[in-house]
């Protein structure tokens, strides 16, 4: 279970609190505020706070004195223009703060997105819970032969069960040793900052992660991609739902111009123009490498958002 009953009660009590404010709020996101969205086997994601909405982006872009009286369609058109031409600063005016519980190995991927403020649960001061991520059998796969960062075919059921036993046994053994090293009476009373180094990377950690809308969309564009690792992609998919609740006009533009779009190099565009002119172009005479050619052909045939 990702949350104890006491923690759920604390969240419920927090959700009942209300505060008068003059700043704009978003009803759809207010309904999600503080609520844990469970991810993986013990993880979760929840919105703690936010600032701004679609109108705040428009206001910043126009540098207006207020929210204005323009039609919603005009505001949506401006947001789409900003997204299409990759104007970033108006989107930076909106911010959001998440509370995330995630395995350590995913946290180390996530932290590569540097344009955020992060405060992680400290195992120097506190004792980590005995919770570990164990993949479901359908996500247990061999190393891909064509992608050094990806997975290939799923393991046979008996092999998956054996690997899960290894992962579970290793995690439990190292956690028992962790407790023994910490125990001052029957163990060694080792400092927490040293005892933690024995734990496995599938141990869960937690953090508060605050970022602006521009950098959130950059995170999502990379992490909802089908090539992203499954265990971080499921967090990104939940965050994408939150994006739609928070800034629906921006989210729609993001789906069109970022998630559902592809980028062609100048060489690829030259090949595409030749094709549109009726010329039959083969890879050998295209000027593209085999990999570039395959990527271009895949982009033309596939639905990037699908």
Task: Give a verbal description of the structure.
- The protein is an alpha+beta fold and 306 residues long.
- It is 45% helix and 13% strand.
- It contains twelve helices and seven strands.
- The strands form two sheets. It has a five-stranded antiparallel sheet with strand order 1-2-3-7-4. Strands 5-6 form a two-stranded antiparallel ribbon.
- The protein is flat and about 80 Å long.
Q: What share of residues is helical?
A: 40-55%
Count of helix runs: 12
Mean pLDDT: 93
Number of strands: 7
Shape call: flat
Radius of gyration: 24 Å
Roughly how many Å apart are the termini? 31 Å
Beta percentage is 5-15%
**Largest sheet, order of strands side by side?**
1-2-3-7-4
Order of helices and strands: HHEEHHEHEEEHHEHHHHH
Largest sheet: 5 strands, antiparallel
Quickly give the structural class: alpha+beta
Q: What are the low-pLDDT stretches, counting only 5+ consecutive residues below 50?
A: none
Question: Key terms for this structure?
Answer:
306 residues; alpha+beta; five-stranded antiparallel β-sheet; two-stranded antiparallel ribbon; flat
Summarize the entry for a quick read.
Helices cover 45% and strands 13% of the residues. It has twelve helices and seven strands. Helix 3 (54-62) crosses helix 4 (72-84), helix 4 (72-84) runs parallel beside helix 10 (248-259) and helix 9 crosses helix 10.
